[in-house]
Design goal:
The complex is a heterodimer. Chain A has two domains: 182 residues, no CATH class; 114 residues, no CATH class. Chain A is 34% helix and 21% strand. Chain A has twelve helices and twelve strands. In chain A, the strands form two sheets. In chain A, strands 3-2-6-7-8-9-1-10 form an eight-stranded mixed β-sheet, with helices on both faces. The model of chain A has no long low-confidence stretch (mean pLDDT 94). Chain B is of the alpha/beta class. Chain B has one domain. In chain B, 30% of the residues lie in helices and 14% in strands. Chain B contains ten helices and eight strands. In chain B, the strands form two sheets. In chain B, strands 2-1-3-4-8 form a five-stranded mixed β-sheet. In chain B, strands 5-6-7 form a three-stranded antiparallel β-sheet, with no helix packed on it. Classes of the chains: A alpha+beta, B alpha/beta. Chains A and B meet through α9, β11, β12 and α11 of A and β2 and α7 of B.
Chain lengths: 341, 317
């Protein structure tokens, strides 16, 4: 297929066209930070950003989600209702390659061989992902250490490469190709534009300063479970869920019932292994009784267990946990400590 | 000119050499510009990691309730007041804690700095006496520290540690003229609907990460009310009712104990104005019970005791 490009001045028009066809999620500025929201006009999209505060996983895996509700009040026995299934097509526009990759990772959990979560898959299969590659990775980014990159393709249907006045379009999947062909805001790319793509990508790669040998971390972790290392590295952690909730790959959840008299709803809400109650058993026993066991779990799960179970390290190197941790517990520092241990 | 970092290292080494403490809790260099991070020092060779600068914003008193060892702690004015309260609440003994007090002129709010730079990333920050030089890709900018301090620092009336075992540096002048409740009074003057709308808008940003709770030295309950399943006091959803209840109840739980250190506000990843509630609590406690938290080791916290002449206009008309 002929290479395509789109002028930045045409973006709003493209988004407005897409909005007529389906739900469009894009980065918007709200309360002083960037968040992915459904937009109703192309001009709402805010693309001059490094990354969103919250990861776009919440589009497929919302923080609070009703699973079903029941009503006994009608006096005729049970009536149970699940949420209506998502028929409408969606597009996530302006996602970063690390976050797009995180969705592939989450598919292992919510759309796996054994278990398919309809609340997730329903939305996921109807969504097209249009990413914008990162010309200027942040100093806290380390996606290349995890096998990703500023223009990494897996997880996206289309990737836009910013070469100044326009974006060059990289088609990744058939789904993406179909969308591109359908919209004449995409024009044939000029020959000289394509060499600019190569330059842009090289410059971005050169800016990626953090490099960690994650494979060696995984190997080392195999024999570190009982190491006193964990007491020291977890000492300053305050056990909140900032890293968990802002992480594009974290996916643990709790299920509770919200009941008012004769009606109720079963809800799924995000949960964090950092919380003491996460592993608290009905007997009162807690297999992870202190912060040390819980922090160890975070690292072991992401860099060892998840790899063994699903073939991917459960981290995409987006750096949100580094930026927002209240005590600046830097995961890159922890990984390097493991390597040097 | 005193180099505070060096002075802290010296006292740390002395305390460890003389076996007066087993552990020093202080700050070391952070992994990104304008940040420092808590560190736990147990040997003189590690003590050179200790630093002091305008990014030492955490309240290290948070770590005291779990500590069994004799500990020295680097503490600025607000942190010391937290320690006093923790001693009164019997979470730590006075003998257990060696307070390395630091008179403080305020800590930098890096979110205000980021807002000023309009999203440009800071790659280097150099602190001078009154300014900070910020450098990033294609820019260099100098800012005045006093213009970018945390809100709680701007209205601080206890910059000097109230008690200490050693004081590093000279005492700084306290700002007696500041109206620390100006923003609370502004808020109080609004209508009921305006206040509810403003409060709802603010807490709607909440992602229930509990960073505020976990950063607070006074949130040390073995089981927090939000984690209770029997009874299930509050829901885990991010619905406004659940989230609002969390913040309101937490504010009441720390009323009379909160010293306005700002740790909750600084920890929040969503930039919620948490001090709006806590500062109001502080003002109410002052007006109703003529009590200021964390000033004296002797006085009894008003919500932990009862006097027959406690105000009760809300019961008796």
């Amino acid at each position: 297929m002929q290479e395509l490009e789109i002028a930045k001045t045409e973006l709003v028009s493209l988004l407005n066209t897409l909005i007529k066809e389906c739900k469009v999620f894009a980065p918007v500025e709200q309360n002083g930070f960037i968040t992915f929201q459904e937009i109703h006009s192309g001009s709402e999209a805010f693309l001059d950003y490094i990354n969103s505060k919250k990861p776009p996983k919440e589009i497929f895996f919302p923080q609070s989600e009703g699973l079903f509700s029941y009503d006994l009040s009608k006096g005729k026995g049970w009536s149970v209702e699940g949420p209506s299934s998502e028929k409408k097509q969606s597009i996530i526009f302006g996602i970063r390659p690390c976050d797009a990759r995180s969705l592939v990772l989450l598919d292992n959990v919510f759309d796996g061989q054994l278990y398919k979560d309809p609340y997730y898959t329903d939305k996921r299969k109807n969504t097209t992902i249009i990413a914008i590659g990162c010309n200027q990775p942040s100093s806290t980014c380390f996606c290349t250490s995890l096998g990703g990159g500023p223009f990494y393709q897996e997880g996206s249907d289309l990737i836009l490469v910013d070469i100044g006045q326009k974006y060059i379009l990289q088609v990744v999947t058939e789904k993406g190709e179909k969308l591109a062909k359908k919209h004449n805001e995409f024009k044939e790319a000029e020959d000289h534009s394509l060499s600019l793509v190569r330059d842009t990508m090289e410059k971005a790669d050169a800016l990626m300063k953090s490099k960690i040998e994650v494979q060696k971390v995984t190997e080392k972790l195999d024999s570190m479970f009982d190491d006193p290392f964990w007491d020291l590295v977890s000492e300053k952690c305050i056990g909140c869920a900032v890293c968990t909730y802002l992480c594009p790959t974290c996916h643990c959840f709790d299920i509770t019932d919200e009941v008012i008299s004769q009606t109720g709803e079963r809800v799924r809400t995000w949960d964090s292994c950092a919380f003491p109650s996460f592993t608290l058993e009905a007997s009162g026993v807690n297999p992870r009784p202190s912060n040390k066991e819980r922090y160890r779990q975070r690292i072991m799960h992401k860099f060892n267990y998840f790899l063994a179970n699903h073939g991917m390290v459960a981290c995409v190197g987006c750096g949100r946990c580094i930026k927002e941790c209240p005590v600046n517990l830097d995961i890159r520092g922890v990984l390097n400590s493991i390597l040097n241990h | 000119m005193l180099n505070t970092s060096v002075a802290i290292r010296d006292i740390a080494k002395k305390l460890l050499d003389e076996k007066k403490v087993d552990l020093i809790i202080g700050f070391e260099k952070g992994s990104v510009p304008l940040r420092s991070t808590p560190c736990f020092i147990r040997s003189t060779s590690e003590a050179d990691r200790l630093i002091w600068n305008v990014s030492c914003e955490n309240n290290l008193a948070k770590y005291l309730p779990k500590i069994k060892e004799r500990v020295a702690i680097v503490a600025k004015g607000c942190d010391v007041r937290s320690i006093i309260n923790l001693i009164k609440e019997k979470q730590v003994t006075r003998e257990q804690v060696f307070i390395i007090g630091i008179p403080c002129k305020g800590m930098i709010d890096r979110r205000k700095v980021e807002a000023k730079l309009d999203g440009k990333e800071i790659l280097e920050a150099e602190e001078e006496d009154d300014t900070i030089i910020l450098k990033g890709p294609n820019f260099k900018e100098t800012i005045k520290k006093e213009e970018f301090l945390h809100d709680s620092c701007q209205t601080c009336t206890h910059r000097n540690p109230v008690i200490y075992d050693v004081l590093i540096g000279d005492k700084v002048t306290e700002d007696q003229a500041v109206d620390e409740y100006r923003e609370v009074k502004d808020f109080e003057s609004k209508s009921h609907d305006e206040r509810w709308q403003s409060f709802s808008d603010e807490v709607s940003k909440c992602i229930r990460c509990y960073a505020c709770r976990n950063a607070c030295p006074f949130c040390y309950c073995q089981e927090c009310f939000v984690d209770s399943s029997q009874p299930h006091w509050i829901g885990k959803t991010t619905n406004l009712s659940d989230t609002a209840i969390f913040h309101i109840v937490r504010a009441f739980h720390i009323a009379g104990r909160c010293v306005d250190c700002g740790a909750c506000d600084r920890a929040c990843p969503m930039g919620i104005d948490l001090r709006r509630l806590t500062k109001k609590m502080e003002k109410d406690v002052k007006e109703l019970f003529h009590y200021e938290a964390g000033i004296s080791l002797e006085d009894v916290p008003p919500l932990a005791t009862f006097n027959p002449d406690d105000p009760q206009e809300f019961i008796m008309v």
